[in-house]
Amino acid sequence: MEDDLFKKRLTELADKAYNNSQYVFTGFLSMAEADIYYKMERELSYAQATLFGGTKDCERVMIRFGSEDICGYVEEFPIECIEIEPLIEKFAQQLTHRDYLGALMNLGIERSTIGDVIVDGKRAFIFCTDKMADYIVENVDKINHTSVRCKKAQNIPESTITRLERKRVQVSQVRADSIISKVYGMSRSESVNLFRAGKVYINGRLNENNSGQLKAEDKVSVRGFGRFNFVGIAGESKKGKLNVDIDIPI
At what angle do helices 176-183 and 188-196 cross, to 10 degrees? Predict the structure, then answer.
């Protein structure tokens, strides 16, 4: 039922943009919501939608219905980036994604107004709607037990995956389930179960084909475990195994 309501809402937004020649935006979507859009992408193509979350790698994205051809003008995404840093770094805790998000949710902020949260050492970058930015800056002064200051970011990171570590694993073939099992140290059957549970997304789309082969530059996200970029095949071992490289956020 919720999926049907969301599909109806997307259609209404697309119609509004097309019929009124104006840009219309969703809030930040979960990956499951974005996947619903991807399944409707062709039927909504008349509204010329664009997806963006603040950087090229964001998992949580907005949809902008409309284009310069339809609207006759250009309008950017209503997204701001907030930088959060400790007041005194040497006394600051090593905060996690959950700590930052929890502090925002405790203010009663709707999840759809918050995009990706990027933890970079003892600071973080948070993408949010432009209408929510000032409220966050004015009201977030403590994360867990650490006193912090917030400001609109001047130097927005180019990627939500700011620091990557190259890792090499050996597999018999570049099947998605094989690589996921190696990356996260689980059995093949456990990896397959993640596909069956709808927890694997490749390039933002829900993927239930565990035997599908990954391609260079594929972005894989596994709910509850993390995400990685598939770099490609780096060669073959003496025993005939494939050496494949992946990039994992540090």
Answer: 120
Q: For residue range 174-194, what is the model confidence (pLDDT) as tens digits?
A: 899 999 999 999 999 999 999
Decide: helix, strand or coil at residue 112. helix
* DSSP reduced 3-state for 28: coil
Element (H, E) at 217: none
CA distances from 39 to 4, 33, 65 (A): 13, 10, 16
Tokens at 114, concatenated:
């918050």
Please report the sign of the dihedral spanned by the C-alpha atoms of residue 21, residue 68, residue 78, residue 160.
positive
Domains of the chain, start order:
2-71 (3.30.1370), 79-152 (3.30.70.330), 164-249 (3.10.290.10)
Q: What is the pLDDT averaged over residues 155-170?
A: 79
Kindly state the average pLDDT of the residues 36-59. 94
CB neighbours of residue 163 within 10 Å: 13
Cα–Cα separations (whole angstroms), residue 50 to 31, 41, 44, 141, 238: 15, 10, 11, 34, 46
Q: What is the pLDDT of residues 113-152, one digit of tens each?
A: 999 998 888 889 999 999 999 999 999 999 988 899 999 9
Closest among 56, 3, 1 to 206, alpha carbons compared: 3
